[in-house]
Structures
1.
Amino acid sequence: MDDVSRHPVSQQLFDRARVVSPGGVNSPVRAFRAVGGSPIFMASGSGAWLTDVDGGRYVDLVGSWGPMLLGHAHPEVLSAVNEAVARGTSFGTPSEPEVLLAEEIVERTPADLVRLVSSGTEATMSAIRLARGFTARDKIVKFAGCYHGHVDALLAEAGSGVVTLGIPGTPGVPAHVTADTIVLPFNDRAAVEAAFATYGEEIACLITEAAPGNMGVVPPAPGFNGFLAEISARHGALFISDEVMTGFRVSRSGQWGVDGAVEGWRPDLVTFGKVMGGGFPAAAFGGRVDVMELLAPVGPVYQAGTLSGNPIATTAGLATLRLATPDVYARLDETSAQLQQLVGEALTAAGVKHVVQNASAESFSNMFSVFWGVDAPVTDFAGAQAQEAWRYRPFFHAMLDSGVYLPPSAFECWFLSAAHDEEALSRIAEALPGAAQAAAAATPDEWI
Ligand SMILES: *Cc1c(COP(=O)(O)O)cnc(C)c1O
């Protein structure tokens, strides 16, 4: 593939970036390692579309990895931000926009109190510290394939056997840091029961993605989240629902689906990010008053941030949440249903085995991904890893060449926005048949 001739300005920037940054990127997935080739540098975005530095236009199905629920450069978000910028960009004091955003979150979500931070990683890291402080216990339970940011203790891989203590998933994390992390297979009740039977008195918290979207989209089995809440409570552990990706993306309530309401569970702590920052660095963790009031300055658990509650980021987040009306979600769901169908039809027509999977096992969710070369729904990380991810490489590049920007990894969610309209969908529909053929013709040892 000749990226230099097709994207000369992108290639020049990437060459310069690699001189000054490791791998030329500030977050690894952006480097295109999983799909081959060189990353495309984007210059601007508007609605459903991105324009690259060489003038190419793409329908964007990454949405900045989730935040851009309303599409790029939404005029009302931009004008709110511009007005806020004119008043100054950071004060290091309390300011009104952060109160308004916190009020909006508390009103919509199960959180009684929230603390604002700048990234999802900070939110989960702080929630875990708080859970350990509250329970005076050290162990935490997480699921293989769930991503909660790059928190040391959460970058653990499962050892062998069903209930094992985690081993570091990356160099640089000391073994003693993940020694208190228990990694279990997702959707596996027996494994959770065994972990609590063995370590119940020592477990501070169980953290899960409300609906995992970081191993591809794998919905919790019906009742699974309720089960997790119940077994955690029974053993005096806190249940942390990580809604950094799902929060305000799958529903207005900030909560994944209606599962909580239907099944009667509430997380003790919940984390948000992505959509609630409206494209700026803002995230939050929140929950029960008695737990949250253990945080400094009220309580002894320390947590802080120079730019936490930043007036620009909170203004963008608030504008985004206010504009995300029930109509917006209805539209998003409809567009997503159409896209899921288009993708499924194109892959079937080309004879590519696949499962298009969304974030709800029982109803419909706009958050979805495609698993390649599988016959049955994927329920855990082992299943996700067993897919024919290599089929995605030629598919991805064929779509890119036809003006559709997909996530540069088979293990990522496809993100739509409320700005995706007929024009965007028809660009995708035109690109799909050729890309599906390329996926059908792919071989595992092929590299681009
Ligand atoms: C993206 C994500 C995070 C990490 O958020 P960052 O802002 O990238 O640090 C944590 N949890 C989940 C579920 C996520 O999708």
2.
Amino acid sequence: MISFLDLKAPYLELKQELDEAIARVVSSGWFIGGPEVDQFEAEYAAYCGAAHAVGVANGLDALHLALRAMDVGPGDEVIVPSNTYIATWLAVSQCGATLVPVEPDARTFNIDPALIEAAITPRTKVLLPVHLYGQPADMDPILAIARKHGLRVLEDGAQAHGARYKGQRVGAHGDAVAWSFYPGKNLGAMGDGGAVTTNDPQIADRMRVLRNYGSRVKYVNEVQGYNSRLDPLQAAILRVKLAKLDEWNARRRSISKRYQQRLANCGLTLPYVPDWAEPVWHLYVVQHPQRDALQQALTDAGVGSLIHYPIPPHLQQAYASFGCREGAFPLAERMADQVLSLPMGPAMGESELSGVVRIVQSAAKAICRP
Ligand SMILES: *Cc1c(COP(=O)(O)O)cnc(C)c1O
């Protein structure tokens, strides 16, 4: 059996430091906010090269509250990728704003900057690119379009902790970046967690008020806020793991490199990396027209794999009111039919990698036989 991702491995690797961090919080009596959250925020902001980081309860809240901090509401339009995790869309809907999906570049899976301007209307307020699968979106043209039309840019960085675009870490290209620390992410907590990084002091200040019931001074409420706080226990855990993130990302890069070499020429479409991108390989996603047969062969051989994502947001029942039929966003739909994520994680060893490669190669060969 080769698992898709080993979630226990990071704990075993850092057991002593993590146990100490947890004991420190438990014995301190600080269970909401406090020094661990402050210090994690400072360390994560520094890591991202951003002036501010504001911890929140999860990645969806990070997106939602960042949009609120940008005053997004009913009547506003937000441009999102047609192919993303549903959270990107839900954050916009939660503000009462209107979703305007744009199709991806077929090679990078990220929003196609060449298609954005046609989707802009006088109501457009925010561009919301996603750094999908850990690969940075093409930020320069996106930022140029935003400047030209007076729009804000919020990035969904939930899959891209540590990724670099033209040498600069994701975290401060646009007006704000939303992060998730869901356990399976490259930087994952032992429960839920999220944050927003930004260089804009006003966005950071609004985030701090919004996450805390709309209050700056206890029992004085300026706005109708939310309860969305990063737990100090999770902050302490994240501080330990942040120190390991670059090493863990380097291991992912090394695995992806070997996949790229050994899976070439077996009929799969492998990930494409533009020369300006340094992805962190949150997922290693291949494409095959007979994806389901390929996945079944892997399952039969005891290799875990997942589909990110099997139903694009516009075809979800949750968005039935959006009124999209099949065919509305053909690239997103093709991806949903053809993508397959192979095992990937910092704990994956050479023997597991070789096992996956061997099984994928023989499965691909068997499928192609007429
Ligand atoms: C995981 C994820 C989110 C949501 O994060 P949660 O912490 O689970 O709320 C948002 N966007 C993308 C692209 C994600 O992968």
